[in-house]
Amino acid sequence: MPDSTPSSARTPRVRFAPSPTGYLHVGSARTFIFNWLFARHTHGTMVLRLDDTDVERNTEASVQSIFEGLRWLGLDWDEEYKQSERLALHRQAAESLFAKGLAYRDFTPAHAGDDNQSSAAQGAWLSNPGMREMSRAESDRRAAAGEPFALRYRVPRGEGRTLQFVDGVYGAQFKLADEIEDFALLRSDGMPTYHLASCADDAGLRITHIIRGQDHLTNTFKHCLIFEGLGVEPPQFAHLPLLVAPDGAKLSKRRHGPVVSVTTYRDAGFLSQAFVNFLCLLGWSPKDDREFMTLDELTDAFTLEGVNRANAVVNFTEEDPFDPKAVWLNAEHIRATPVEELAPRLAPFFEQAGFHPAPEKLLAVTPLIRERIKLLRDAFSAADFFFLDQLPPYDPAELIPQKSDAALARRVLSRALEVLPTVPFNHDALEQALRAAASELGLKAGQAFQPIRVAVCGRKNAPPLFATMAVLGRVTCLERIEQALSSLESFS
RNA sequence: GGCGCUAUCGUCUAGGGGUUAGGACGUGAGAUUCUCAAUCUCAAAACCCGGGUUCGAUUCCCGGUAGCGCUACCA
Fold it and tell me: N or C end of chain A: smaller count of CB under 10 Å?
C-alpha cells in the first residue's frame, strides 16, 4: 500500500498539529500560517490534526480556544483529524516495529532515575540497563505476567551509521545513530508517545511536507528512524526558526503570559490580516522591500527559500505588550480597509465602552478616525465626543489658544454662534463660513479654530473640524459652543 | 555534560569576495496642515571575536564566544 512516488513529487499535503494544552499561542499561529501559505501557494492540501495524546494535559477548553484562535486568523483547512481517534493506527505501527525487532519492551519503572542530567553526562542514557538485550522469551513472559513496560525503539548501535535528511530551511543534516537514545514509542499505559503517534499519522495521512518549529530539528532523526521502520518514505522536512522574547527565551505561556496568546491581539483590536502579515515577517522575507502585504500577496510570495534560520525576537515589553512593528502594520491595514468594512469591526469596541452607535452614525464617524487609530480598541477614545450626550467640563486653558486670552476665545465663539444657525451643515459650507468669520475677526485659521474645536470636541486634538461638525450636526454644535462660552464667562 | 542550530543597526530583515552595507519599525530634527493623525525630508544607528584562504573579507574555511534547541513513558 505504501506509495512509491517520492513525497517531493506528490501534490503537497501539509499539516498543522497543535496539542491542546492551552490557548493558541503566537508561535503556533505562525507555524499554522506558514503551513497554510505553503499549501495555498502550491495548491496543496491543508490538514488540521489535534495532537491530543497527552491525556494528562489536554483539555476541551483548550481545543475550543485553539479553534477560536484559528477561526479568527481567517485561514481555513481542508481536512481535520483528532489523534486520539487514531489510536488503533498507532498501536498497529508499534506492533509492526516490535514484530520487526525494531522495538523492545522496557520494564524499567517510569521515572526510575530522575537525575537524567547526571546520568546523561555519563553517557548512560542510551538505554536502560538489561532491557535492550533481554531475550524475546523473557520479555514475552514478563509481559504475559502483566508487568508494565514501555516500548522503545531499538536504535542501531555500534554500526557507525549516520542518519541524514535534507531540511528545506536548514539544509543537509547529519547525526550518528549512536548518539540517539532508545526513545519511547509507547508509554507503560499503552498510549503512544508524540514521536510514534506523529509519525504514524503523518504516514497514514500521507503528509508530504512537515513544516514545524525548529525545536523539532534534532527530533527529526528519530522520526526518520520510525518512518524507515514503518517502511514508508519520510516526508520532506522544513523547520522554522523560533519566536523568542526580548530576553532570548523561547516564547512561553508560562513565562510571558497573555502576550503570547493570539486572543490578546484580537481583543486589543488587531485586524487578523495585519497580525498574519506581522507574523510572516518574523523569520521570513519576500526578499524585496515589501512589508505591508495582503494575504494574496503573501500566498503568492511565500516559499521555503525565503525562510530565515535565526530565531526572531518579538519585541514586547511589560508596558507595551505589542511589537511596534505589529502596531504599525495594523494601522496600515486599518487605513487600507474600506469604511463600510471597517465600521462594523469597530462596533464591538464601542459596545465595550457602553455605547451602541447606529450603523449610519458609525459609518459617518469611521472615516474621521480611520487614520488616527492604531488598534481598533483606540476607536472609542478617538471618537467619544460623537457619542457622549454631555461633554465633560471644559478646561478654559484649552479653549484659549496659546499667546491669547479669554476675551479672544469668547469673541470667536460668539461669532460662531451668530454664523452657524444659517450655514448648511456640510464640510464645504462650514469651511467657507468659519474661515470668513476668522478673517473678519482678524485671526489666523489655527487661532480661530481652536476654541471651536475644543468647544465641539472637548479637546485640542481631534479629527478635522468641518467634517466633524457636519457629523455632529447643528444642534449639538450650537449647544456645545454655548456651554463653552458660558464656561468662559467668569474667566479673564 | 553531550549533540545540534544560529550570529548584519535597539527590533524585523536585504545583501554578499571590492557596496557610501540597502529597506522597514521605533527614535530625534524639520516641512506641510485648522489641531491631531497621515504625508514628505533629513539625522543618529549594524556586519560577535580571533585566526586562516585571498591582491582584497562583513561575505568562504577553522576555532572561540554567546544565544537557542534537543538530550522525558511532554509535545
Answer: N
The catalytic site residues of A sit at 253
Burial label for A285, CB within 10 Å (0-12, 13-18, 19+), is middle
Residues of chain A (38-97) having a beta carbon less than 7 angstroms from strand B: 51, 53-54, 57
Query: Of A362, A387, A412, at which residue does a domain stop?
Result: A387
Structural domain for A465, as ranges: 396-488
**Is A252 domain-assigned?**
no
Contact between the CB of A428 and strand B at under 7 Å: no
Task: Answer for A129: CB within 7 Å of strand B.
Answer: no
Q: How many CB atoms lie within 10 A of CB A262?
A: 26
Mean pLDDT of A157-165: 93
Q: Which of A387, A411, A426 is the last residue of a domain?
A: A387
Q: Does the ipTM exceed 0.85? A: yes
The answer to whether some atom of strand B lies closer than 7 Å to the beta carbon of A462 is yes
Q: Domain tally for chain A? A: 2
Question: Would residue A245 count as lying in a domain?
Answer: no
Distance CA A248, CA A168 (A): 24
Convert the pLDDT of each residue in A421-464 to its tens digit. Answer: 999 999 999 999 999 999 999 998 988 999 999 999 999 999 99
Distance CA A31, CA A36 (A): 9
- Give the pLDDT confidence of A376-409 residue by residue, as tens digits: 999 999 999 999 999 999 988 899 888 788 889 9
Window 350-409 of chain A: CB closer than 7 A to strand B: 371-372
Looking at per-residue confidence, does A275 or A491 come out higher? Answer: A275
